[in-house]
Amino acid sequence: MPHLKLADAEIYYEVHGAGPVFLFCSVTGLDHQAWKFHQVREFSRDHRVIVFDYRGTGKSSKTVQKYSIKMFTDDAAVLLDHLEVEQAIVCGHSMGGVVAQLLALDYPKKVKKLILASSGSSHPEAKGIPLAMCRDMVRMGFEGYIRQHTIEMGWTKEFVVAHPDLIEKFLQVRMSGIAPLENYLHFVLARQEHDHTDRLKEIRVPTLVLVGDDEKHGAADKTHWHAAHELAREITNAKLVVLAGEGHHYLATNPDAAHRAIREFIE
Q1: What are the counts of helices (DSSP H) followed by strands (DSSP E) for the chain?
Q2: pLDDT number for residue 70
Q3: pLDDT classification of 1: cutoffs 50, 70, 90
Q4: How many angstroms separate the CA atoms of 28 and 178, rounded?
Q5: Do residues 94 and 215 lie in contact, with contact meaning Cβ atoms separated by under 8 Å?
Protein backbone atom coordinates (compact mmCIF):
# COMPACT_ATOMS: atom_id res chain seq x y z
CA MET A 1 0.00 0.00 0.00
CA PRO A 2 1.55 3.32 -1.03
CA HIS A 3 2.14 5.90 1.69
CA LEU A 4 3.72 9.33 1.55
CA LYS A 5 5.93 9.61 4.65
CA LEU A 6 6.00 13.11 6.12
CA ALA A 7 7.79 14.30 9.23
CA ASP A 8 4.67 13.96 11.39
CA ALA A 9 2.30 11.74 9.38
CA GLU A 10 1.93 9.04 6.75
CA ILE A 11 -0.56 9.79 3.99
CA TYR A 12 -2.19 6.90 2.14
CA TYR A 13 -2.93 7.41 -1.55
CA GLU A 14 -3.96 5.56 -4.68
CA VAL A 15 -3.39 6.29 -8.38
CA HIS A 16 -5.69 4.97 -11.09
CA GLY A 17 -5.50 5.31 -14.87
CA ALA A 18 -3.31 7.46 -17.10
CA GLY A 19 -3.57 10.88 -18.73
CA PRO A 20 -4.06 14.40 -17.35
CA VAL A 21 -3.99 14.35 -13.56
CA PHE A 22 -7.26 14.56 -11.61
CA LEU A 23 -6.97 14.96 -7.81
CA PHE A 24 -9.98 14.37 -5.54
CA CYS A 25 -10.33 15.81 -2.01
CA SER A 26 -12.91 14.32 0.36
CA VAL A 27 -15.53 15.73 2.73
CA THR A 28 -14.98 16.43 6.42
CA GLY A 29 -13.15 13.62 8.20
CA LEU A 30 -13.65 11.02 5.47
CA ASP A 31 -11.16 8.85 3.62
CA HIS A 32 -11.00 8.27 -0.16
CA GLN A 33 -13.53 5.43 -0.45
CA ALA A 34 -16.58 7.46 -1.50
CA TRP A 35 -14.79 8.45 -4.73
CA LYS A 36 -14.76 4.76 -5.67
CA PHE A 37 -18.54 4.61 -6.04
CA HIS A 38 -18.30 6.39 -9.40
CA GLN A 39 -15.56 9.00 -9.89
CA VAL A 40 -12.50 6.75 -9.92
CA ARG A 41 -14.06 4.47 -12.52
CA GLU A 42 -15.47 7.29 -14.64
CA PHE A 43 -12.46 9.59 -14.81
CA SER A 44 -9.63 7.04 -14.76
CA ARG A 45 -10.77 6.03 -18.27
CA ASP A 46 -8.87 9.04 -19.59
CA HIS A 47 -7.17 10.66 -16.59
CA ARG A 48 -4.60 9.80 -13.96
CA VAL A 49 -6.85 9.86 -10.91
CA ILE A 50 -5.33 10.46 -7.48
CA VAL A 51 -7.28 9.86 -4.28
CA PHE A 52 -5.87 10.03 -0.76
CA ASP A 53 -6.78 9.77 2.91
CA TYR A 54 -6.40 12.89 5.02
CA ARG A 55 -4.23 12.38 8.07
CA GLY A 56 -6.56 11.08 10.76
CA THR A 57 -8.68 9.03 8.33
CA GLY A 58 -8.61 5.70 6.50
CA LYS A 59 -5.17 4.17 6.09
CA SER A 60 -3.28 7.37 6.91
CA SER A 61 -1.77 7.85 10.37
CA LYS A 62 -4.29 8.54 13.14
CA THR A 63 -2.30 10.79 15.47
CA VAL A 64 -4.69 13.07 17.34
CA GLN A 65 -3.55 16.64 16.74
CA LYS A 66 -4.86 20.10 15.94
CA TYR A 67 -5.72 20.11 12.25
CA SER A 68 -6.14 22.99 9.83
CA ILE A 69 -7.28 23.39 6.24
CA LYS A 70 -3.77 24.67 5.54
CA MET A 71 -2.33 21.41 6.86
CA PHE A 72 -4.53 19.29 4.56
CA THR A 73 -3.69 21.58 1.65
CA ASP A 74 0.04 21.34 2.25
CA ASP A 75 -0.25 17.55 2.47
CA ALA A 76 -2.01 17.49 -0.91
CA ALA A 77 0.67 19.72 -2.44
CA VAL A 78 3.47 17.52 -1.14
CA LEU A 79 1.65 14.46 -2.49
CA LEU A 80 1.52 16.04 -5.96
CA ASP A 81 5.25 16.75 -5.73
CA HIS A 82 5.91 13.19 -4.57
CA LEU A 83 4.06 11.88 -7.64
CA GLU A 84 5.92 14.35 -9.88
CA VAL A 85 2.71 16.11 -10.87
CA GLU A 86 3.20 19.62 -12.17
CA GLN A 87 -0.47 20.50 -12.60
CA ALA A 88 -3.81 18.85 -11.85
CA ILE A 89 -7.53 19.26 -12.21
CA VAL A 90 -8.68 19.39 -8.58
CA CYS A 91 -12.15 18.35 -7.39
CA GLY A 92 -13.18 18.85 -3.79
CA HIS A 93 -16.50 17.95 -2.16
CA SER A 94 -17.72 20.03 0.80
CA MET A 95 -14.68 20.53 3.09
CA GLY A 96 -12.59 19.01 0.30
CA GLY A 97 -13.64 21.96 -1.83
CA VAL A 98 -12.14 24.30 0.78
CA VAL A 99 -8.89 22.36 0.51
CA ALA A 100 -9.09 22.59 -3.29
CA GLN A 101 -9.63 26.37 -3.15
CA LEU A 102 -6.67 26.87 -0.84
CA LEU A 103 -4.53 24.70 -3.10
CA ALA A 104 -5.39 27.07 -5.97
CA LEU A 105 -4.60 30.07 -3.76
CA ASP A 106 -1.37 28.89 -2.14
CA TYR A 107 -0.06 26.69 -4.97
CA PRO A 108 -1.60 28.27 -8.08
CA LYS A 109 0.83 26.66 -10.53
CA LYS A 110 -0.32 23.21 -9.40
CA VAL A 111 -3.99 23.72 -10.29
CA LYS A 112 -5.25 23.67 -13.87
CA LYS A 113 -8.99 23.72 -13.14
CA LEU A 114 -11.16 23.64 -10.01
CA ILE A 115 -14.35 21.70 -9.38
CA LEU A 116 -16.05 22.72 -6.14
CA ALA A 117 -18.93 20.41 -5.21
CA SER A 118 -21.28 21.79 -2.54
CA SER A 119 -18.53 23.77 -0.89
CA GLY A 120 -17.83 27.21 0.55
CA SER A 121 -15.03 29.33 1.97
CA SER A 122 -15.99 30.02 5.60
CA HIS A 123 -18.36 29.57 8.54
CA PRO A 124 -18.42 33.15 9.85
CA GLU A 125 -21.27 32.68 12.34
CA ALA A 126 -20.43 29.17 13.59
CA LYS A 127 -16.87 29.00 14.86
CA GLY A 128 -15.97 25.97 16.94
CA ILE A 129 -18.05 22.80 17.10
CA PRO A 130 -21.68 23.73 16.32
CA LEU A 131 -24.06 23.48 19.28
CA ALA A 132 -26.54 21.32 17.35
CA MET A 133 -23.76 18.84 16.54
CA CYS A 134 -22.76 18.61 20.22
CA ARG A 135 -26.39 18.14 21.27
CA ASP A 136 -27.12 15.46 18.67
CA MET A 137 -23.89 13.52 19.33
CA VAL A 138 -24.80 13.38 23.02
CA ARG A 139 -28.32 12.19 22.19
CA MET A 140 -27.52 9.76 19.37
CA GLY A 141 -23.87 8.81 19.88
CA PHE A 142 -21.20 9.42 17.25
CA GLU A 143 -22.31 6.78 14.74
CA GLY A 144 -25.97 7.64 15.17
CA TYR A 145 -25.27 11.31 14.58
CA ILE A 146 -23.18 10.69 11.44
CA ARG A 147 -25.85 8.42 9.96
CA GLN A 148 -28.76 10.75 10.73
CA HIS A 149 -26.95 13.91 9.63
CA THR A 150 -25.80 12.23 6.42
CA ILE A 151 -29.34 11.19 5.54
CA GLU A 152 -30.86 14.59 6.34
CA MET A 153 -28.25 16.51 4.33
CA GLY A 154 -27.54 13.92 1.67
CA TRP A 155 -30.77 13.39 -0.23
CA THR A 156 -34.28 14.61 -0.77
CA LYS A 157 -36.98 12.90 1.27
CA GLU A 158 -38.30 11.32 -1.91
CA PHE A 159 -34.88 9.85 -2.78
CA VAL A 160 -34.51 8.41 0.74
CA VAL A 161 -37.86 6.63 0.45
CA ALA A 162 -37.16 5.34 -3.07
CA HIS A 163 -33.56 4.14 -2.58
CA PRO A 164 -33.04 2.74 0.96
CA ASP A 165 -30.60 0.02 -0.15
CA LEU A 166 -28.41 2.47 -2.06
CA ILE A 167 -28.30 4.84 0.90
CA GLU A 168 -27.48 2.03 3.33
CA LYS A 169 -24.59 0.93 1.10
CA PHE A 170 -23.25 4.48 1.08
CA LEU A 171 -23.62 4.76 4.86
CA GLN A 172 -21.66 1.55 5.39
CA VAL A 173 -18.77 2.88 3.31
CA ARG A 174 -18.97 6.27 5.03
CA MET A 175 -18.88 4.75 8.50
CA SER A 176 -15.95 2.49 7.59
CA GLY A 177 -13.95 5.49 6.38
CA ILE A 178 -14.87 8.16 8.92
CA ALA A 179 -12.20 9.47 11.27
CA PRO A 180 -12.30 8.27 14.88
CA LEU A 181 -14.36 10.56 17.12
CA GLU A 182 -11.56 12.72 18.57
CA ASN A 183 -9.90 13.11 15.17
CA TYR A 184 -13.29 13.92 13.62
CA LEU A 185 -13.91 16.71 16.11
CA HIS A 186 -10.55 18.21 15.18
CA PHE A 187 -11.66 18.08 11.53
CA VAL A 188 -14.81 19.98 12.43
CA LEU A 189 -12.80 22.61 14.31
CA ALA A 190 -10.45 23.02 11.34
CA ARG A 191 -13.39 23.42 8.98
CA GLN A 192 -15.34 25.85 11.14
CA GLU A 193 -12.36 28.06 11.98
CA HIS A 194 -11.10 28.49 8.42
CA ASP A 195 -11.92 31.56 6.33
CA HIS A 196 -10.36 32.69 3.06
CA THR A 197 -13.40 34.54 1.71
CA ASP A 198 -11.40 37.73 1.25
CA ARG A 199 -9.03 35.87 -1.10
CA LEU A 200 -11.60 34.32 -3.45
CA LYS A 201 -11.00 36.89 -6.17
CA GLU A 202 -7.36 35.74 -6.27
CA ILE A 203 -8.48 32.39 -7.73
CA ARG A 204 -7.87 32.77 -11.46
CA VAL A 205 -8.24 29.24 -12.79
CA PRO A 206 -11.46 28.14 -14.50
CA THR A 207 -13.81 26.93 -11.77
CA LEU A 208 -16.95 24.80 -11.83
CA VAL A 209 -19.25 25.18 -8.82
CA LEU A 210 -21.81 22.40 -8.27
CA VAL A 211 -24.64 22.33 -5.75
CA GLY A 212 -27.89 20.43 -5.35
CA ASP A 213 -31.14 22.37 -5.33
CA ASP A 214 -32.09 20.62 -2.06
CA GLU A 215 -29.10 22.03 -0.13
CA LYS A 216 -30.82 25.06 1.36
CA HIS A 217 -31.24 23.65 4.88
CA GLY A 218 -29.50 22.02 7.82
CA ALA A 219 -26.52 24.35 8.32
CA ALA A 220 -25.52 26.09 11.55
CA ASP A 221 -24.99 29.29 9.59
CA LYS A 222 -24.51 29.35 5.82
CA THR A 223 -26.11 26.53 3.80
CA HIS A 224 -24.27 24.73 1.01
CA TRP A 225 -26.66 26.41 -1.44
CA HIS A 226 -25.75 29.91 -0.27
CA ALA A 227 -22.05 29.12 0.07
CA ALA A 228 -21.91 27.75 -3.49
CA HIS A 229 -23.61 30.84 -4.86
CA GLU A 230 -21.11 33.00 -3.01
CA LEU A 231 -18.22 31.07 -4.58
CA ALA A 232 -19.72 31.45 -8.05
CA ARG A 233 -20.18 35.17 -7.49
CA GLU A 234 -16.74 35.90 -6.03
CA ILE A 235 -14.45 33.65 -8.12
CA THR A 236 -13.72 35.42 -11.40
CA ASN A 237 -13.82 32.48 -13.81
CA ALA A 238 -16.54 30.46 -12.09
CA LYS A 239 -19.54 28.69 -13.60
CA LEU A 240 -22.42 27.60 -11.36
CA VAL A 241 -24.44 24.44 -12.05
CA VAL A 242 -27.43 23.69 -9.83
CA LEU A 243 -28.39 20.03 -9.91
CA ALA A 244 -32.14 19.42 -9.88
CA GLY A 245 -33.51 17.13 -7.18
CA GLU A 246 -30.19 16.64 -5.42
CA GLY A 247 -28.98 16.88 -1.83
CA HIS A 248 -25.39 16.79 -0.63
CA HIS A 249 -24.27 13.32 -1.73
CA TYR A 250 -25.16 13.26 -5.43
CA LEU A 251 -21.59 12.33 -6.39
CA ALA A 252 -21.88 8.99 -4.62
CA THR A 253 -25.47 8.00 -5.33
CA ASN A 254 -26.70 9.83 -8.45
CA PRO A 255 -23.72 11.33 -10.28
CA ASP A 256 -24.86 11.40 -13.91
CA ALA A 257 -25.83 15.09 -14.09
CA ALA A 258 -22.73 16.13 -12.15
CA HIS A 259 -20.50 14.00 -14.38
CA ARG A 260 -22.01 15.56 -17.50
CA ALA A 261 -21.26 19.03 -16.13
CA ILE A 262 -17.73 18.00 -15.14
CA ARG A 263 -17.03 16.42 -18.52
CA GLU A 264 -18.23 19.53 -20.36
CA PHE A 265 -16.09 21.68 -18.08
CA ILE A 266 -12.82 19.73 -18.36
CA GLU A 267 -13.05 18.89 -22.06
Answers
A1: 10, 8
A2: 98
A3: low
A4: 9
A5: no
